[in-house]
Design a protein that fits this description.
Layout lengths: L7 H13 L5 E7 L5 E9 L5 H7 L5 E6 L8 H12 L3 E6 L5 E5 L12 H6 L6 H6 L7 H16 L2 E6 L5 H16 L3 E5 L2 H18 L6 E3 L9 H8 L11 H13 L14 H7 L18 H9 L4 E5 H11 L16 E4 L5 H8 L2 E4 H11 L11 H11 L3 H40 L4 E4 L2 H5 L3 H30 L8 H25 L6 E10 L2 E10 L3 H7 L6 E6 L9 H6 L8 E6 L5 H4 E6 L10 H16 L3 E4 L3 H17 L6 E4 L5 H11 L2 E5 L16 E4 L10 H12 L4 H18 L10 E5 L3 H4 L3 H7 L4 E5 L1 H17 L1
Parallel strand pairs: 3-4, 6-15, 6-16, 7-9, 7-10, 8-9, 10-15, 17-22, 17-23, 18-20, 18-21, 19-20, 21-22
Antiparallel strand pairs: 1-2, 1-3, 4-5, 11-14, 12-13, 13-14
Helix pairs in contact: 6-7, 7-8, 13-14, 15-17, 15-20, 16-17, 17-19, 19-20, 24-25, 24-31
The structure holds iron/sulfur cluster.
Iron/sulfur cluster binds next to helix 9 and helix 12.
């Protein structure tokens, strides 16, 4: 009944407006009163579905969009369903009425906030008790842990009382279940979405494939969860159609087979996401058909209602728990701006609570996310869409298609613009190609000259700007900026004519693609403008490059000096609850460093909790330090390192992870150690080093082969999970201090010193201690693991700051002595292990 949904005045208003529009389609926006009736209605658009994006902008959460079906059939069309879902994500209702306003079809109800229902701590704990629902499903595999309940209670309080909670939960605590249980309960109680953000795909897979399905089995009330994938993970039907029709073909001859396979797959896939493909297509192939925000016309796309990406977004809005990665979360909060995560627009549907797992990566992920980079490769890749020179049959790409249209288009005004723009765009592309080459080569040449190095990484300082040769570099970039601008102008001119033509819809593939190229070009100019412009104190400007054979790789970069303000303004102050958890967040058992790093220092809602690992580190692990090692940096350091390394490896019979802080040192020590082991009869031990195969494969081999040693740096300090005998020793070759000459580190140090802050104590040292803790954390992964951590940097005992590293792993047994004594202790440790 219409009176159940509209006030009489609102129904009458709608009726009159439809009559005025001669029964054609009219879109209205109305409000909801306390009796859930639509009132205060206004006309938004008449007979024009293209106005939907504007309505989406204007309607507020709790409003209702009403439109009439002139046919009188109120059944929503597929397009209505797609549009309704977009409104639903925003909390806006979507109703269809007949032109006499006698009947109504409610496609989506508006969001009406209800009373908050707290999660009962005791009921939440019951899920993880020894005889609780999780234990009943897992049976003997279930391990009850007090520590897990402590984390669960803290997370529950954070949800109920709207805290920003930081929780360090040692390895083996089982923290994923302890934050998932309150997240699900909160979502069920309050019909509010909770977002779980991780840094790695591995953890996302664990949540989606193991933990969440387990909890869905044990919760009495059904709940949905979903993984949020980035737009580029989805096949774009519009771009795929263009390739399928050979409209602007620029696939390399060698990649045609893969493209054909992708297009075949696209006909049968149900979710259209990259992970559904049985093979990994070359990047260039996927790049050609993947969905991308720059070229997507959204609701104007003829495939909008069946689009894989938008379908996935509609499905997300049904989920109670979403799993995403830190990067995607930062993209989302950047788009939502000061409106905050619990608001309407962004790449993730609104969410009220956020749980960061692997939270030690928040600052780094935010820094990387808010950084900007421009390289010749990036520019060329975009230009190759317009003209690819790689195919044997001559140039391919959008320009060829435009010249085809210049001959075949029936509309004379369009034919004219295709003819004119084809030539102008080709000239612009040529100019940019020539200038880019020169620009980046001259920048690299400048850097190599002032540093005397082939591999450069240089911060843009006042001194560099004053260098007389810098003006030449700057002028060249100015020329590049101008060329990009004229490309955008040409594209803008063409788009202006085509999009206002009555044939605009038949050229949507072309206009979407060109629009995407223009947006990218604008982004390139933004990087150049900010890099060479003045007054941007918030970003560190630096350039890097290298020469490989005849090719020069060079880029300009901007990295945020500090992400704390951004996070504070757009995340913490706008989100009711943020939980941050990881096994390594505290330094010297406090969170001061992390709080400063990510903008939580002054927040009164902050609560911290440290929960130690349930493992018995005193018996399971031994920290060993040979005190007679030369200090790192001394000429004889690497020789000593290789010797003691081979002696230790021969005791553990391989099964070791050797962690470095630089690739060059890794390579040298790998060679030397390999030789010593071979000469001493230990050739059966396999040595692997990072980079010789993909990370996943390398870890798999290391895990399964046995008697292996993995030499690694960077990302291997964390996320390596090798339980059992395959990892019995972790070697930390050098305390993991940041390199002070790295442009970003250098700028941060300078920034802190200017404010009279001791950069070593406040930044370099705590960062290194956390990295050390992560490296150490690779050793003991289960309660039956045993092993040693060998630290081959004597500064851990000779310098005042060494105690911070040792204290950070204070649960472990510790021994420091001469090399022979250390090796003796190691033998004893493993000998005793064997006896057990
Ligand atoms: S809506 Fe966008 S992403 Fe989806 S098919 Fe159309 S252009 Fe591609």
């Amino acid at each position: 009944m219409i009176e159940d949904y509209f006030t009489p005045e609102a129904a009458e208003f709608i009726r009159e407006a439809i009559t005025e529009a001669h029964g054609n389609e009219v879109f209205f926006v109305g409000k909801i009163n306390d009796s859930s009736l639509v009132y205060d209605v206004r006309v938004f658009a008449r007979g024009n579905r293209h106005a939907v994006p504007a309505i989406l902008d204007a309607a507020k959460t709790g409003n209702v969009v009403v439109h009439n079906h002139p046919s009188g059939n109120l059944e929503p069309s597929p397009q209505d369903v797609a549009v309704a879902s977009a409104f639903g994500n925003k909390g806006v209702g979507f109703y269809i009425v007949d032109s006499r306003v006698e009947n109504v079809y409610v496609v989506i109800e508006p969001f009406v906030p209800g009373e908050t229902v707290r999660v009962d701590n005791e009921s939440a704990r019951e899920y993880l008790l020894p005889a609780g629902p999780v234990a009943r499903v897992l049976g003997e595999k279930y391990e009850y842990r007090d520590e897990q309940l402590e984390v669960l209670s803290n997370v529950t309080d954070a949800f109920n009382d709207e805290y920003l909670s930081m929780i360090e939960a040692g390895t083996g605590t089982g923290k994923t279940l302890s934050y998932l249980v309150p997240s699900i309960l909160w979502s069920i109680n309050n019909d509010e979405r909770v977002l779980i953000s991780t840094n790695t795909i591995n953890l996302q897979e664990q949540l989606i494939n193991k933990d969440l399905p387990l909890l869905r089995d044990v919760f009495p009330k059904k709940f949905d969860y979903a993984l949020v994938k980035g737009m580029r993970n989805y096949f774009c039907l519009l771009r795929g159609e263009a390739v399928g029709q050979d409209l602007f073909d620029f696939i390399d001859d060698g990649e045609r087979g893969s493209m054909k396979d992708v297009l075949e797959w696209a006909k049968t896939t149900t979710d259209g996401s990259l992970s559904d493909l049985a093979f990994t297509p070359p990047d260039d192939v996927w790049d050609r058909v993947s969905a991308e925000s720059e070229s997507c016309p959204g609701m104007k796309c003829p495939h909008y209602s069946s689009c894989f990406f938008f379908k996935s977004r509609r499905e997300l809005s049904r989920a109670s728990v979403l799993v995403a990665n830190h990067h995607m979360l930062f993209s989302d909060i950047a788009i939502k701006g000061t409106a905050g995560p619990d608001s309407d627009f962004g790449i993730i549907p609104r969410y009220a609570k956020v749980v960061f797992d692997e939270a030690h990566n928040i600052a780094e992920a935010a820094t990387s996310h808010f950084s900007l980079k421009l390289s010749k490769h990036g520019i060329m890749k975009t230009l190759s869409r317009l003209r690819s020179r790689k195919s044997k049959g001559g140039d391919k790409g959008i320009l060829s298609y435009i010249s085809h249209l210049a001959q075949r288009e029936k509309d004379s005004a369009l034919r004219e613009v295709f003819e004119r723009s084809g030539g102008a765009l080709a000239a612009a592309v040529e100019r940019i190609e020539a200038v880019s080459e020169e620009v980046f080569n001259s920048l690299y040449g400048f850097g190599a000259e002032i540093s005397g190095e082939a591999a450069i990484s240089i911060r843009l300082t006042e001194e560099i700007v004053r260098n007389e040769k810098w003006t030449g570099v700057e002028e060249r970039f100015g020329a590049l900026e101008k060329s990009l601008f004229s490309l955008e102008n040409e594209i803008g001119h063409l788009l202006g004519v085509v999009e206002s033509s009555p044939h605009a819809d038949s050229h949507i593939k072309l206009t979407a693609e060109l629009g995407g190229i223009a947006k990218r070009s604008l982004a390139f100019r933004e990087v150049i403008g900010r890099f060479f412009g003045e007054g941007d104190e918030s970003h560190i400007r630096w350039f890097e490059g290298n020469r490989r054979r005849a090719a020069i790789f060079c880029s300009i970069n901007l990295s945020p000096l500090d992400v704390s303000k951004e996070l504070s303004e757009k995340l913490y102050s706008k989100t009711k609850t943020v939980v941050m958890t990881s096994a390594s967040l505290a330094v010297d058992r406090n969170f001061d460093f992390q709080k400063k790093n990510i903008g939580l220092s002054d927040d009164e809602r902050f609560r911290g909790l440290i929960v130690d690992s349930p493992f018995d580190f005193r018996t399971q692990s031994l920290l060993l330090v040979p005190a007679d090692m030369p200090e790192p940096g001394r000429d004889d350091y690497e020789d000593s390192l290789s010797r003691i390394l081979s002696d230790s490896i021969s005791i553990t019979n391989g099964n070791a992870l050797v962690l470095f802080t630089s690739y060059s040192s890794l390579n040298r020590v790998y060679e030397k150690t390999g030789k010593i082991l071979e000469e001493s009869g230990f050739a059966h031990i396999s040595l692997f080093k990072q980079g010789e195969m993909p990370r996943g494969l390398l870890l798999e081999k290391f895990k399964t082969l046995g008697n292996s040693v993995l030499f690694a740096t960077d990302s291997f300090w964390e996320g390596v999970d090798v339980p059992g005998d395959s990892l019995s020793m972790v070697v930390i070759c050098r305390l993991p201090f940041k390199v002070p000459t790295d442009p970003v580190t250098e700028a941060k140090i300078e920034y802190m010193e200017k404010q009279d802050i001791d950069s070593f104590r406040e930044y370099i040292l705590p960062h290194a201690v956390l990295r050390f803790k992560q490296g150490f954390g690779r050793l003991i992964r289960t309660k039956t693991d045993r092993g040693v951590v060998l630290v081959l940097d004597r500064r851990i005992v000779s310098k005042y700051y060494g105690k911070f590293f040792i204290n950070s792993v204070s649960g472990s047994a510790f021994f420091c002595g001469k090399t022979e004594e250390v090796l003796g202790r190691m033998r004893d440790f493993f000998f005793r292990t064997e006896k057990h």
